[in-house]
Amino acid sequence: MSIYKTIPCPELTAEEIEALHAKYLRERDRRISKKHNDQYISAEGKWKDIYEIDPYTPVAPRDPITGETDVIILGAGYCGMMVAAQLVKAGLTDFYNIDHGGNFGGTWYWNRYPGIQCDNDSLVYMPLLEETDYMPSKKFADGYEIHDHCQMIADTFGLRDKALFHTLIESLVWNEKTNRWHVGTNRGDDIKARFVVLAMGPLNKPKLPGIPGIDKFKGKIFHTARWDYDYTGGEWRNPELTKLKDKKVAIIGTGATAIQVVPYLAKHAGHTYVVQRTPSTIDMRNNQPIDPEWYKSQKPGWQQERIANFHHAAMERLAPHEPDLVVDIWTEISRNVNAELEAEGWPEISQEEFMRRRTLWDYRVMERLRNRCDIVKDPATAEALKPYYRYLCKRPASNDDYYPAFNQDNVELIDVAETQGLEALTENGFIHQGKEYECDCIILASGYEVTNDLDRRWGISRIEGANGLSIYDYWREGFQTFQGMTAHNFPNMFFTGFTQAAANASNSKTFIDQGFHIGYIASEALKRGAVRVEPSAEAQEAYITHLRSIAVDNSDYVNECTPSYFNNEGDTSKKRHIFGEPWGEGYYPFEAMLKAWRDEGGLNGLQLEIEKAAEPAE
Question: Could you point out which of 67, 508, 599, 609 has its C-alpha 20 to 30 Å from the C-alpha of 390?
Fold first, then answer.
């Protein structure tokens, strides 16, 4: 009996795969806008409140802070919290988490739209479950449950009294004389910090579609990241949208967020227009509760084992006989390849043969997912909902109610592939193919500033290191780091996320491990009496040279994808990819390299400036 639970997928001939590949390219070309990322507008000017204003928690007045601290962490979402927890473990307790939200949680604080859940396995995605002794309620936890668990993490690690909420960073400037970072904020703060950690996370700043006339619409308009229950009715933990009963609503976007929202609009709104440029891949959800008895039976270290298994299946490959512990859309292709190899008696195969098999299963799984669209009764709508691209060209989704929503008379698909978006907004609605559609409310499910230029993504006007060098100028042509977390000319500053490091399939795991490494460097610097630590130019150059020598070139795959934030909206001239420049040998070899570097103990490649002892009095 096989250890792999597979779902039947259609057989495809070589000719059919060739035809599908050609169709994938045609569908991509239909959707590529010459504006690429510039087809979106930033949440600034008239739209700044979408980013800056907190509609959930009143702002508490406080006096400006002008004192010193050891560490400033930018962000109090998963990334900032994971860094903070690791700093506590490293013995660093004098720090602030600074965030413009009103509580811990980051994206799980801001996003309160109806239907919000994680779309990765909760047992993998929700961090520090063993440390907080917490069992998620189901495979894909609700957003408010994840938010509440964030509060548990904050309390477990004593983070709450170290947080500065409703505070926007405006400047980070290095002072050569004092060896401190001056942190300026919109609250009048001028905090002097030994170290600064940029931990804002990738889903930090909402972006808006740059539709002509977006300023003209006189109805209600809001972004899903700032859901307005006062307008729609209902509340975060009980999203009964009763005030939409007689309203026409348009939702722009059909990514991971809209997939969760549309069934609620279909249930409650008088009429719903779903504006789609590119359909998502949507598998069955089958969101089952976690079995408490199973959970109690897990041995210490179970979560790290599950995370590693998920990473192998989703991003690399399962080893022979390695089970698939997660079993969902994210792991299906690797699971199917291993089931095939198991049936053949586990033959030894090359990496090239593995990729050949994986590519075949990619086409077969996508065909299975396209066939799911036939749940929709109208043939034209069903066809328009079918995703014609390779798996992982867009973020995979799962939902049991999205496709059935299109069988309701009050739900209408507006397919804008040919025009790469709506033609215009008017005072009363939107224009599609020359026809005006009136609506009362427009909901923007247009995502975040994930791959735009750094100053636009981060929203911080000044980040200046040694000799006034701007990080935006220094990184204009691409990242320049040592180990992905430090940079020459930016002493005592640490970076997280997707730079020149490695990325785990679970973001929270990436953030935990980066926080651990940052905590090690900062604590070692303090133990050694250092007031300044940064990589030498030579060490940084050597690191980047090696990183690029082991890089995996997947540009053909990426460039053939349908436009999305995964490939800079089809812009091949961009210097930065969503995942930065990842370590080509994989996540766990990267972590092993860092561990060996730490175990050696010399902080090789880093330059430490030791604080001079005071001259004895005469």
Answer: 508
In 3-state terms, what secondary structure has residue 113?
coil
In contact, 106 and 129? CB cutoff 8 Å: no
How far is it, in rounded angstroms, from Cα 290 to Cα 275?
35
How far, in Å, CA of 158 to CA of 421, rounded?
A: 47
Q: What is the pLDDT of residues 409-431, one digit of tens each?
A: 999 999 999 999 999 999 999 99
Mean pLDDT to the nearest integer, 281-310: 97
By C-alpha distance, which of 512, 611, 612 is closest to 501?
Answer: 512
Are 492 and 532 in contact, with CB atoms under 8 Å apart?
A: yes
CB 400 within 8 A of CB 407: no
pLDDT at position 575: 61
Which two three-digit tokens encode residue 481?
Answer: 């780091």
d(CA 327, CA 313): 9
506 closest CA partner among 113, 152, 129, 145 = 129
Select the more confidently predicted residue: 566 or 121: 121
- Which residue(s) pair with 533 in the sheet? 608
Which among 204, 257, 223, 180 is positioned nearest to 77, based on CA atoms?
204
Phi, psi dihedral angles at 157 (to 5 degrees): -100, 10
| Mean pLDDT of all residues in 230-247 | 98
| CA dihedral angle for residue 153, residue 156, residue 161, residue 166, rounded to 10 degrees | 10
* Contact present, 424 and 212 (Cβ < 8 Å): yes
CA angle 498, 502, 504 (to 5 degrees): 90
Two tokens, residue 88? 């506590």
pLDDT in the model for residue 201: 81
Q: Tell me which residue has tokens 């890089």.
A: 551
Rounded distance between C-alpha atoms, residue 514 and residue 268, angstroms? 43
What span, in angstroms and rounded, lies between the C-alpha atoms of 250 and 271?
Answer: 8
pLDDT digits (tens, 9 = 90+) for 572-585: 877 667 788 999 99
> Span 458-465, mean pLDDT?
93
**Amino acid letter, 370:** R
pTM of structure: 0.96
Q: 396-420: buried (b, 16+ CB within 10 Å) or exposed (e) per residue?
A: bbbbeebbebbeeeebbbbbbeeeb
Contacts of 175 (CB under 8 A, 6+ apart): 181, 182, 192
* Cα–Cα separations (whole angstroms), residue 365 to 61, 99, 261, 368: 54, 41, 25, 5
Query: Looking at residue 366, what is its pLDDT?
Result: 98
